[in-house]
């Protein structure tokens, strides 16, 4: 009978033949069921045997053979049920067991034997171990690999619940024990892997004239795929082993694993070995693996040299990590997972790097002659580095002639040495250009040339390669890259596991020695390799945060990524990892280091699109020349009204990256140490000041700095209480000596182009008491506003340490205010609305800080009032020059009004009145009369809510302007009549607040207008409801007090 490989059947032919087999199976199954109904055991076995004969075929591939097997398996369940019922067939099981062995064909005979034997065991007429052993031996009669594997799979499936396991009913009365159950499964497992290994992995066919090598290659791959399709049949034995109740940890360690490895060592097929190892790792418990790590790792190391050990290690490491994450406290202390894996991983890294044989590797093996054993964990790093000054005199010791079969034995006594190292022994023979070697694309010529591109030698250094040689070399390069990537994946899982187990920095610091060894020996211009290195670098940041920088070789790994594309990915991935990390310990030195590594992303070139980012040169010129003021008018740069919104998510990658950077900034500044927070803010700004992200990140930095000033402001009460004891000082000293407090000169480093903030401030604003366009302002620059006396008041007798710290904090505040003013001026044309809000928020912080200065007489901060005035006038300048949309203008007036009314008390009366007057004028110039009316109505609170600046006459003046604007607005649109209702409510408010300028006549006038509108049939329902609520409020006040006694109301409105 011909093999399906010989016939080279197509899928269509296979399906056709399968249909024929299925037809026969269904036919015989029908007759078998009829015989079952008639109770005829003889006819039943006859038709069952005919049905099972279809499994004798060799013309089906494993895929189609499995379909046929499953159909027959389902039909045999009817036979199994019939034989199990002794009342139906009225035969002894021993007689049936013997009778089925007389079947003419061996395939039906053994399948029927298994069914009868299964029920024979259940009847307990004979001990289970004898029947199981007998069936196992009889199954050896099938030596065809495919048919034999399915037969043994059927045996395991049918007898898996008839095994004399510990505690089972078949263990009683000498039916067997765990040893017999395990021996049954082990025998079938061993026979199965022998059958599997005999499945041909070569295409037994000659090429026809029209075929080529590619066809043969494709056919061979097809056969190999079919060979792996039956792996489940073998793995089922291991699955049942792991399910044994008697498979305890001790039994697994002493008997199970050693026998499995012994049987596996007799098979010289790397595919089978790899699958069995992976199955062992997957099916047995994690506890068993933890206690047998040494045995398992040694077995993997000593097995077939072509075995893909990386996939096995990855599976094992993942399982252990999941187990430890859920059962961390159950890990035995006597098992040093780090040492066990590390010693083997060193060998595997060497094996991976030395796998490029035939003189093509840049690195070769030099053996230690002293027979030194593998170094301990503490010395592993030194061992891994290799000794570049020792080579074997005998060239037979190089990687070209090293046998990979004994690599596991020689690797502990070998070191990786650069074969083209210029620092070799003086007597070493130099290589010729034709002998220039390359390693993973890292080419070397003589002793100094570095690699250009992966897998390509420099031009002129070698002879011209043929097309076949180039293809072969490319295939070897791809294979090497794949091997290195898998090795890096193993190291990734190893580092991941150790991070979840160990907390000590010493152990964690050793985790990056092996990745660094690989990174330093391969060309990271390859995208796949570099991305895998990046994943390893980023991993510790997910769990250790900035503490990951303490790992040995971590800095070198970070520096190994050189291309701009990969640096950007590394930077973003590190930022993401730190954001997700729960360990948020912040130290200035760690922040300084990490910023130096991720700094490329801050200065990357980004697509400007619709002028997303202002040109840095323009910003510099704009900063130097474009901010001279004359009153509230700004010369120089004019904002483009069509400029795109910088914070629109549709702007793409730059907004996406900026969002991550803002989160990252909040994390690195999340510290209670004021000195560190201030220095980190300044350091972060230094990295972004010349990049495209300044305008996106500056608001975040400004808010953080203002929060820092607020924190300092709130120190006043606690500092007084705690200054009694030096041990309870509210301020901690700086942990690092280089984190020195910055003085005024230090801040100059953060101003662009060496410019002081003088150039960013307007000239002195002259004024007189009546001209609203000119404002009272001392003729000082912003630096002059910060001029201070750093000497403390000699009369103050307090804690000297506390005084010095507060003086330092006071200096921080000065620098922060200068910083905010300087930088907001630079970006105000790009983000006018946000800059306006930031200026207002800064003014509030300055106003509050004045109380802190007054609470500490030894502090000196001159011109705080002028600084506050500057921060309030800048929003008005932005309003005039950069905000052109009417709705935004109205919102700005409301914001400024709210700040002045509720938070500002520091300004002098004259300055406050000038700002209020200017704001009222802006409100009166809005585009719509309705907006004018509402804005001026809001401005009236400026003259009333703040008691320090209260002016009843100005309130009345604003209300009268509102009435005029409302009258004009109603003429153009009658819907604006609701403005009179708003005015009525405001008049009622001020009248109740006892504003002497508000009279009853004004209230009556507005009541009359609103009542007329209320009585109209076309009056809006909303207006009616609002008016009634106002009338009811006034009426309630009339009854409860005398305040509204003179206000007359129409009683009919209250009915």
From TrEMBL:
Q: Which InterPro entries match?
A: Vps35 (IPR005378), Vps35_C (IPR042491)
Annotated region described as Disordered, given as residue ranges? 374-405, 417-477, 617-646, 716-796
- Top-level taxon: Eukaryota
Mention any one GO cellular component term assigned to this protein in its UniProt record: retromer, cargo-selective complex
| Membrane-protein topology | Peripheral membrane protein
Q: Which UniProt keywords apply?
A: Membrane, Protein transport, Transport
Q: Where in the cell is it found?
A: Membrane
Q: Name one GO biological process term.
A: retrograde transport, endosome to Golgi
Instruction: Mark out the compositionally biased spans (Basic and acidic residues).
Output: 375-392, 418-433, 617-643, 729-796
User: Which Pfam families does the entry link to?
Assistant: Vps35
Entry's family note: Belongs to the VPS35 family.
Protein known as: Vacuolar protein sorting-associated protein 35, putative
